[in-house]
Amino acid sequence: MQFHSSLTQFERLPLTTDPTPEPNPDEAEIDKESLDVPQIRQSNGTLASTEGVNSLGQRTNSVTLQKSEELRQVMLAHRHERQLVILQDFPDPDALSSAWAYQLIAQQYDIKCEIVYAGTLSHQENIALVKLTGLPAIRCSVAALKSKDLSFYQGYTLIDNQGTTSGLVPIVQQAGIPLMAVIDHHNLQGDLKSEFIDIRPTVRATATIFTQYLQAGLLPLDNSINQHVKCATALMHGLRSDTNLLMQAKEEDFMAAGYLSRFYDAQLLSAVLQANRSKRVMDVIERSLKNRIVQNNFSIAGVGYLRYDDRDAIPQAADFLVTEENVHTAVVYGIVHDEDEELEVVVGSLRTTKLTLDPDEFIKEAFGQDSSGRFFGGGRTSAGGFEIPMGFLSGSNENSAYAKMKWEVFDTQIKQKLLRLVNPKDNPIQPE
């Protein structure tokens, strides 16, 4: 596989950029402790050298060591407890793999973690990742969590999100469960009160942050442990996914990939990546092609109503549309029906190859905030998404004429908000 072959170069490279010089017999022997090599104490009390992260640069190295030690202290303070690890409602490979790494780290301190998400896995690669690796993430709907006895949990942790994209967070907050840790690579979404916070927007993937934790000694990976190999494979997939095949990776992301290349299973990753698209996903892509409008190199497509389980077809359609000639940005959106809660939301995805377009700023400017000041969407480099509740107009789509009318209203409104930025001088909605 082409991706793996490019990574094999890392297997032959040391983790440090500068080669170790040959010892000079004329010089006095230097005490290694006097070199002040950064170290972090592992769960068993032993010290692990962190020379492997020195090549990330002095600043990154310092942050990694500091945050790794802070996390270790928090873990020590919460030994033998039980936690919920909450992901965004529709978790991606970066979130899934990072949560698994967190769970394995916590196990060393006898902390039992349950990885949960409220939505569903509909992207074929996400389904394959969980099934083929045995990744221990469980769907827990909002209704199911409300009926659960939450007194068993002494804390909860947010991985690859800050609580703004999960319907489970308000429930645990209402139950009075304290927030133990937030680990994410997205921009800060608001004021967070957590025992441990590691938010690094300059890093392209949360999987990179967790790989740095592993390198720093919080969990030394072992090729002989099958679970470690599978987790390393998942982290490689998460890192690869959030850096667009490493094309948007930064130095620390490349170094993390180099480290993981020693442990991951290339055949297993290949099997995950070769998962076939379902017919329903192909139908949504076809619908986006049929309905798209292209203006100023933006391709905008509404795909109508979607089943809850087919939500991940929207970003896949955006991935496809952005490959069209003379298109640098694609936005695809549709109305997704939540079968559990009888709610409907407008869900959209943005993909761009334009370096000067910031998806986070674009989406926030286009759709704004709700009454509580929470943005309807946001993004990162080259990608973004939005989710707009339909409120009073949710549900009751038995009447096809009414459903069609409702879609036309929302389709027109979304296009108007987008085209206001794409063509600010033009009126996107022409009067009859």
TrEMBL record:
- Where do the record's region annotations for Disordered lie? 1-29
Out of the domains of life, which is the source? Bacteria
What protein is this chain from? Phosphoesterase RecJ domain protein
Task: Give the organism, scientific name.
Answer: Fischerella thermalis JSC-11
Identify the taxonomic lineage of the organism of origin: Bacteria, Bacillati, Cyanobacteriota, Cyanophyceae, Nostocales
